[in-house]
Design a protein that fits this description.
This protein is an alpha+beta fold. It contains two helices and six strands, in the order βαββββαβ. It has a four-stranded antiparallel sheet, with helices on one face. The protein has a two-stranded antiparallel ribbon with strand order 3-4.
Length: 96
């Protein structure tokens, strides 16, 4: 069993490629993307309506080691200050 962190990163669907670049820059290779999330937050309601994905969010789920998170946290923080978004962090264990 391996210990680490689970990151749930929620951003506008249009900004998913930027988050992926941050992850890949620090060699975090495994992630899952769930598109078309709806809800409400500090930047208003995201209803998922429209053809472009402009009004919906996506969640990028990452299982990583603490050191990987340490490498990406400042880049994520800078991104969230610019475009909004959130990263929820939980300690986890996984089998591989």
């Amino acid at each position: 069993m391996q210990s680490g962190l689970k990151l749930e990163i929620i951003v506008d669907q249009l900004h998913v490629p930027t988050v992926i670049r941050i992850l890949e820059k620090t060699k975090v290779e495994g992630y899952t993307i769930i598109r078309g999330l709806t809800g409400s937050g500090d930047r208003g309601e995201k209803d998922g309506e429209g053809l472009t994905g402009l009004f919906s969010n996506a969640m990028i789920i990452v299982a990583c080691e603490q050191s990987d998170y340490d490498d990406i946290q400042e880049d994520l923080r800078k991104l969230f200050r610019t475009i909004g978004g959130i990263c929820m962090i939980q300690p986890i264990q996984w089998l591989s």
